[in-house]
Design a protein that fits this description.
By secondary structure, the chain is mostly helical. It contains 46 helices and 14 strands. Strand 7 (384-390), helix 16 and strand 8 (407-412) form a beta-alpha-beta unit. It starts with a strand and ends with a helix.
């Protein structure tokens, strides 16, 4: 057995022959001891050990825990174990003085409640004898200091309770003797001075009692600048009037009504401590404690949050933490605020007065008189009131003490903002780790450890709501044959989820229903509508569109009742709102039951149309340069939606892109593929600019699939080229020819010349990337010819010209490409500064670089970088840096080239752009070769080759093979060089290209054989 001690200097109890623990190791052990039996996460320990954790923090923590385990060896082999939720110290078979202290205090409290003051004195005496000095006195750091202060409060509370029990037993001389030591530790605790005066007076020492009061009065005035509180002044008055009885034992009839502390309370330590501190601002606490309430007002803490978040368990835990400060009783009242019949405060005051010993036959029937009696009885007592589930401020106000040393904790689903001066504590959902720890604690650590992914998913499906997690854990615990994964599947359905989250009298659906029934009809209707919105969050106008009229406070009702949460303001200044997943499930259930399908669909259609109108506005303000959405019909914007400023269009899209994406899904669910298509087309430009490439591809893949065969060909002919561009950005090259062919066939069927030019151009680009040079030239020449016909959009003419120029660049003929590119750039510039202009400039700069017209290339690249920086096109900027690196290499400036290469590589990693990464790796190889570092050139070139092969771009594969041939030859590794040369030649033959198409920089081209 190991004896641990923290009630004084830290005693780690390690064997004499064990190596001493370092300061960090002692702190880890102390934290685990204080939380014995409960997991402490690694992240929590790291935060306690370092104010600015190093990169090796987790490793150092692991080493510290290993050192603690090693220090105890076989004496305590299983002292510290690792669980899914963190490290756990098991005290089984060992001793910790704090555990013994708290057990004795609890024993004393129970004895006092039974009227056994003698047993209480014995238990409290034993508890206080465990103390050897200030707790953790020799452990440095903020955590140890804060814990020491908190434990010191517990010690003082125990000392006070012991003195009061002795006073009740008539041991007045012993009280007078022992109170001096307590006052030496806490000279401003007024309750101790009251006990001192009562003991002196009860022992017949009236003069000494009055002298003691005068000394206390002088000390308070001289040292604190204030007079003693009313309760102590009242005791002095009673002594003067000889009204002090020989024995005072308020504890005999003091109510102890707090429910047991919830064993499963998890992740609330900091919140419990904060609320407890606010309730310690009583006459017993040091005078002058800061407060927003009037100086003499008893403290009030209001805990607010949705049903099931654990407000009651939290309030009860706080009550137990501070119970020692309230020896005259702890009263718990269920105010039934969420029920149809909330408790009447008139009835509640009567019940509390009876609990305090008042004869029920003497209670006034008049409300005002009974409230006055209630406050009078609390005025000279230290009573803790826990008012659970309050309905309103009007219900709570008559129950608040007016003066004295009492305190009140209130829980409510509503904000209770009119309780001025109260300390307010929003109770949040648990974070993921704490929710997982709660599930694990109840359902079983071994089962959770065996299925960690399923356990995390169960927690996610419970929305981190403590009630839901507890119910899920309880169901798993009482069904040991269930697997976590099997239960996860049971929770997966929306309707099934609420059906599954019930056990015994715990029911998530019933808890939400209480709040729902308390709403006005209009607010209930709005909540049902919000359940139909699948966006992760949304601005206020969405709620107005759902009801089809001004809100007139309906949304405020829902936020006040914690059925709707605010998540802050977005980048354009809109307040964002959200429903908890389980509330959304409930709202959808009620909508299905109470609203007809037609009205539900109309409400959602109004919201989808609102997103479409706003997306169209923002799309028109962005400089992406695409034409997919040009000329589409736009519905009226929502009345309550703020306007979108031109310089905030991209920020609006960034804030709303997931919500607009959800609106696309809603439109498809409603069978409105036309709305979905228009939304997708208006999102395309933004998603391209900000490189949200995966979202863009997924969006268009789903919408195109639903639009086909719906008679929406005019929309499909717009969608297909946008889908093509999304696929090309992610190097889905194998799919491109089929999309281009479908587009071309549809364009001809619609007799749409612009669409035909675009389809021919895209077919040619696909053939280029797939290494089909002759086919590419065929398509691109046709595109260029058709683009010359009257009426074709100049934007498409520029694209066709640039496409044909790129085909010439692929074959190593930059001189043939340049005239087309110059014309393309001139046409593109007429449309303004956009991403499409930047793309043409990129191609133009490439041709100039390959012709060694480097100064001109620099000018073109400067213009490109200016545009991409202005419009926020990170992808375009990265490609400009890649071409800049080629220019610098041709100029013989490897330092500048290196800076450009690294910038392009960082962007490729950030954007998850394999094409850009492959280009950057190849440029790294070119740079090393230019510096004569042939060996260093090999790894990046090999990495580039692997990426090009994965992307399946044969031309780029051949270009990289040629470089590896040159590099290995330069290293004298002629065998390896020859293999790369032969592979390169076979690739060129398959592509019908010659060596001019390899695009080698001069320092490598001269070595290529």
């Amino acid at each position: 057995m190991v004896d641990f001690g923290i009630l004084g200097p830290f005693e780690d109890g390690r064997p004499r022959d064990a190596a001493p623990l370092s300061g960090r190791q002692r702190l880890v052990l102390a934290v685990l001891l204080v939380n014995a039996g409960h997991p402490v996460s690694a992240s929590r320990l790291v935060d306690l050990l370092w104010s600015d954790p190093p990169g090796t923090a987790k490793a150092q923590l692991h080493n510290a825990v290993s050192a603690v385990r090693a220090a105890y060896g076989a004496v305590a082999a299983d002292l510290v174990t690792t669980r899914p939720a963190g490290y756990v110290l098991d005290l089984d078979g060992h001793r910790l003085d704090l555990v013994e202290f708290r057990a004795l205090v609890t024993e004393a409290r129970d004895a006092t409640a039974r009227g056994d003051d003698d047993r209480a004195v014995t238990a409290l005496t034993g508890a206080l004898e465990l103390w050897r000095g200030p707790a953790l006195a020799d452990v440095p750091g903020d955590w140890a200091s804060a814990l020491g202060r908190s434990l010191g409060e517990e010690k003082t509370g125990a000392a006070q309770a012991r003195l009061e029990a002795m006073l009740a037993l008539g041991r007045f001389d012993a009280v007078v003797r022992d109170v001096a030591a307590a006052l030496a530790e806490d000279p401003y605790r007024e309750r101790l001075h009251e006990v001192h005066l009562l003991a002196l007076a009860s022992a017949g020492r009236k003069a000494d009692a009055l002298a003691a009061y005068r000394e206390t009065f002088r000390r308070f005035v001289d040292e604190l600048g204030i007079e003693p509180g009313r309760a102590l002044r009242d005791v002095e008055g009673r002594v003067l009037r000889d009204e002090v009885p020989v024995a005072v034992s308020p504890a005999v009839r003091a109510p102890r009504q707090l429910p047991p502390r919830a064993a499963q309370l998890t992740g609330r330590d900091a919140l419990v401590a904060g609320i407890a501190d606010s309730l310690r601002r009583t006459a017993d606490a040091p005078p002058g404690t800061p407060s927003t309430a009037p100086p003499d007002a008893p403290p009030v803490a209001v805990l607010v949050g949705p049903g099931g978040v654990g407000k009651t368990a939290l309030a009860v835990a706080v009550g137990h933490a501070v119970s020692g400060l309230f020896p005259d009783g702890q009263v718990f009242v269920d105010l039934r605020g969420a029920h149809p019949d909330p408790a009447d405060p008139h009835t509640v005051t009567g019940n509390v007065l009876r609990a305090l010993g008042v004869d029920g036959t003497t209670l006034p029937a008049d409300r005002a008189e009974r409230t006055a009696m209630y406050r009078s009885h609390l005025a000279d007592r230290a009573v803790l009131l826990v008012l659970d589930d309050a309905a309103s401020e009007e219900q709570v106000r008559p129950l608040l003490p007016g003066t004295g040393r009492s305190a009140t904790a209130v829980t409510s689903r509503r904000q209770l903002g009119a309780l001025l001066g109260a300390a307010r504590y929003p109770v949040p959902l648990l974070d993921r780790d704490d929710a997982l720890a709660l599930l694990t604690r109840i359902a079983g650590e071994e089962r959770a450890a065996a299925e960690p992914d399923a356990a995390r998913e169960v927690v996610r499906l419970c929305g981190n709501l403590p009630l839901a997690v507890c119910i899920a854990a309880a169901r798993l615990a009482i069904n040991p044959h269930w697997t976590f994964d099997g239960f996860r599947e049971r929770l997966a359905g929306e309707r099934a989820r609420l059906d599954e989250l019930v056990v015994g009298d715990l029911d998530v659906r019933a808890g939400i229903a209480l709040g729902y029934r308390a709403l006005t009809p209009g607010a209930r209707r709005l909540l049902r509508g919000l359940g139909l919105v699948t966006a992760p969050d949304w601005p206020r106008w969405v709620a107005e569109e759902l009801v089809g009229e001004p809100l007139r406070g309906l949304l405020d009702q829902l936020t006040e009742a914690h059925l709707v949460d605010t998540t802050g303001k977005d980048a354009v200044g809109q307040v964002r709102y959200r429903l908890h997943d389980l509330v959304a499930d409930f709202a959808r259930e009620r909508a299905a039951e109470e609203d007809d399908a037609g009205s539900r669909d109309q409400a959602v259609t109004r919201v989808v149309s609102g997103w479409l109108a706003l997306a169209a506005t923002a799309d028109g303000l962005l400089p992406h340069g695409t034409r997919y959405s040009a000329g589409l019909p736009v519905p009226r914007p929502p009345r309550a939606a703020p306007g979108i400023a031109g310089d905030l269009a991209a920020e609006w899209f960034e804030a709303e892109r997931h919500s607009v994406g959800a609106a696309v899904d809603e439109a498809l669910r409603l069978g409105r593929a036309d709305l979905a298509a228009r939304l997708a087309l208006h999102m395309s430009g933004f998603l391209t600019l900000r490189a949200h490439d995966h979202q863009r591809e997924d969006l268009f893949r789903r919408v195109v699939a639903r639009v086909r065969g719906q008679g929406l060909e005019p929309l499909l002919v717009r969608l297909l080229p946008a889908f093509y561009e999304a696929l090309s950005q992610l190097d889905r090259l194998a799919e491109l020819p089929a999309v281009a062919a479908e587009h071309l066939e549809l364009a001809r069927a619609l007799d749409d010349l612009d669409a035909e030019v675009m389809a021919l151009w895209q077919a040619g680009r696909a053939a280029r990337w797939l290494g089909r040079s002759a086919e590419a030239l065929h398509w691109l020449e046709r595109a260029e010819r058709r683009s010359r016909e009257p009426g074709v959009d100049p934007f498409l003419v520029a694209s066709a010209l640039a496409g044909l120029a790129n085909a010439h660049l692929d074959t190593g003929r930059p001189e043939r490409a340049l005239p087309f590119l110059e014309e393309a750039v001139a046409l593109a510039r007429k449309s303004g500064r956009s991403r499409e202009v930047a793309l043409k400039l990129h191609n133009h700069a490439t041709a100039l670089a390959e012709l060694d017209r480097l100064a001109e290339a620099d000018e073109v690249l400067a213009e490109m970088l200016d545009i991409t920086g202005e419009i926020g096109d990170d992808t375009g900027t990265a490609y400009a840096r890649a071409v800049s690196a080629r220019v610098a290499l041709r100029r013989g400036d490897p330092t500048a080239a290196a800076a450009h290469v690294e910038a392009a590589a960082r962007a490729g990693e950030l954007l998850h752009n394999d094409h850009l990464l492959a280009e950057a790796e190849r440029l790294r190889g070119d740079l090393h070769a230019a510096r004569g570092r042939w060996r260093e050139a090999v790894p990046p070139l090999v990495g580039s080759l692997e990426l090009w092969r994965r992307i399946d771009m044969p031309v780029e594969v051949a270009r990289t093979l040629a470089r590896l041939h040159v590099v290995h030859d330069a290293l004298g590794e002629t065998g390896t060089g020859a293999r790369y040369r032969e592979e390169c030649r076979r690739a060129l033959d398959a592509l019908s290209l010659d060596v001019d198409g390899l695009g080698l920089p001069p320092h490598l081209a001269s070595r290529c054989r």
